């Protein structure tokens, strides 16, 4: 299923929504492409959707939910990708608890 919050996030003189899938990133990418949203609108686990695409997204089947529900759904589906997971690891470090990679 695809979900989006109402356009309430200002940036560069426009309001934006967040579009997510609770099924897979592939589902999300296909839906965004159908909406005409470029891949650069993808941010780790969601697309930023401009307010002028909101009605079309709903018409195509995205379910409108509160912003807090967007985050809850991402965590519940296991598709949440926090910023700290996008940082490159230090050379030679596998990110294991207790730094087991160096033992």
Describe it for me?
The protein is globular. It has helices at residues 25-35, 54-59, 67-77, and strands at 2-4, 9-11, 14-21, 42-43, 46-50, 63-64. A hairpin with a 2-residue loop joins strand 4 (42-43) and strand 5. The protein is α+β, with helices and mostly antiparallel strands and 103 residues long. The termini are far apart. Helix content is 27%, strand content 22%. The model is unreliable at 87-103 (pLDDT under 50). Strands 1, 2, 3, 4, 5 and 6 form a 6-stranded mixed beta sheet that branches.
What's the short story on this structure?
With 103 residues, this protein is α+β, with helices and mostly antiparallel strands. It has helices spanning 25-35, 54-59, 67-77, and strands at residues 2-4, 9-11, 14-21, 42-43, 46-50, 63-64.
Chart the SSEs and their pairings.
Elements: E1 2-4, E2 9-11, E3 14-21, H1 25-35, E4 42-43, E5 46-50, H2 54-59, E6 63-64, H3 67-77
Number of helices, counting only DSSP H or I runs of 4 residues or more: 3
Mean pLDDT: 81
Helix share bin: 25-40%
Order of helices and strands: EEEHEEHEH
